[in-house]
Amino acid sequence: MSRVRRSPRNSIKDRPRRLRLLLRRQKSRIRLLAIVAAAGLLIGLPVLIRVVAPARNLVGMRERFGNLAALVGFRIDHVIIRGQHNTPAPLLDAALGVTDGDPTFGFSLSAARRRIESLAWVRSVVIERRLPGTIVVVLTERRPYALWQHDGHFSVIDRRGDTVAEHDVRAFRNLPLVVGPGAPVHAKSLIESLAHLPTIARRVAASVRVGERRWNLVLKDGTTVELPGGHATVALARLADLDAKYALLDRPLAVIDMRLADRLVVRPWPQQTTPSTNPSGQSG
Q: Which class does domain 27-141 fall in?
């Protein structure tokens, strides 16, 4: 029968080894280093995968890595959205494409950015991933600039003339109204000119693009101001000056023709005629 020899208690063999003593003393520091190393691996591995893996394999590898990281707590549990004013929330949520509990590293920032930037209201977007489970979305939206009436419909356009909304536009009814084909492209210069002439601008009900070459202003009292094709800003300044001197816009005039630089032609309302403020009325 074999026996196991035991050393007497408190003998030299019963003392902890030097390495074990060192590990005990450095336990908290080693734990911190392990956490940092794990975080570095989780952050750096996707970059390494992107460098060495073919593009066709990235999606599958991202999903596998994301699922692996999710096992240790890297799951999306919070989404922060900034800069959203007019972008419809359901469209933005669908474009972002995340749900509570999705793997943090399985979420593609670039794909989400492309989807969100395809939304009409969005000019640009920045998306960040904040570990362990927060996604931050910062939108820069297009600013509503004017309402465009065309073919019986109303749309909201931005300064460039791009359409940003075609439904539920009643909230923007106080924007300047432009009418007709080609109006969005040329609206910016006219609206900026009117902004410098508030006494004229506050009387304007609609600006009608005529023949895609010039503007008619339909005033709130029904008067039509016919502007020239190439020098609308000069004509508007002249109109403001005439109104200040002679109260021109307070007179019962159906048409104020400013298409000729050297003369002003006016046409009064016929007797028994009620002014109309229909913005679709055009003349050549």
A: alpha beta
Residues whose CB is less than 8 angstroms from the CB of residue 183 and which lie 6 or more positions away in sequence, other chains included? 148, 150, 207, 208, 209
**pLDDT, tens only, 133-169:** 999 999 999 999 999 999 999 999 999 999 999 988 9
Looking at the chain, how many residues does it have?
A: 284
Distance CA 169, CA 117 (A): 21
pTM, entire model: 0.70
The pair of structure tokens assigned to 50 is 């992107």
From 3.30.479.10, 3.40.50.2300, 2.40.30.170, 3.40.50.11690, which CATH number describes the 146-268 domain? 3.40.50.11690
Residue range 195-235, pLDDT digits in tens: 999 999 999 999 999 998 999 999 999 999 999 998 899 99
Residue 277 CA to residue 206 CA, distance in Å, equals: 9
Distance CA 192, CA 92 (A): 32
